[in-house]
Amino acid sequence: MSIKSFLNLNLTVFLFSSLPSVILSNPVTVKAAEWTKIDNVKQCSEGNCNTFKNIELNTDTIELGQDISVVNVETGSEIATFQVKIIRYGRMVKMCWIGDTEGVNDGTYITVKGCKQK
After folding, report:
1. Has residue 44 been placed in a domain?
2. Residue 1 domain-assigned?
3. Can you give the CATH number for the domain in which 48 is found?
């Protein structure tokens, strides 16, 4: 077997063996989720984004179409309230992204950890 054939075979085997981990790590859209820890909320408008970390949510479980509220813990003021249009679930990282638009990383979205599909 030539060196070129050997390298092509090794590369092919490597790609096929790593493909499942790449597929499984991509977030998928789910209808409902629950979580144990709140990470942040990010609000984006016309390319300008603000991220808030010290927040509380009015729930620890959500379904598509339900409303969710975000409150700044330090000031007690409401940062956002919106109807959930998308829930993206990352199986490998156990995280969810809850958004007010169907676009990924668009509009306002909340990142939570310890997330699981409901």
Report:
1. yes
2. no
3. 2.30.29
* Structural domains counted in the chain: 1
What whole-number distance in Å separates Cα of residue 29 and Cα of residue 15? Answer: 26
Q: Please provide residue 17's backbone torsions phi and psi, each rounded to the nearest 5 degrees.
A: -75, -30
Taking the C-alpha atoms of 34, 82, 44 and 38 in order, what is their torsion angle to the nearest 10 degrees? -30
Tokens at residue 13, please? 């085997």
pTM of this prediction exceeds 0.70: yes
- N-to-C CA span, the chain: 52
- Residue 100: domain span: 27-117
**3-class secondary-structure state, position 65:** coil
Reported as a single tens digit per residue, the pLDDT across 10-55 is 555 555 554 444 445 689 999 999 999 999 999 988 888 999 999 9
pLDDT in tens, 107-118: 999 999 999 999
Q: Is residue 66 part of a domain?
A: yes
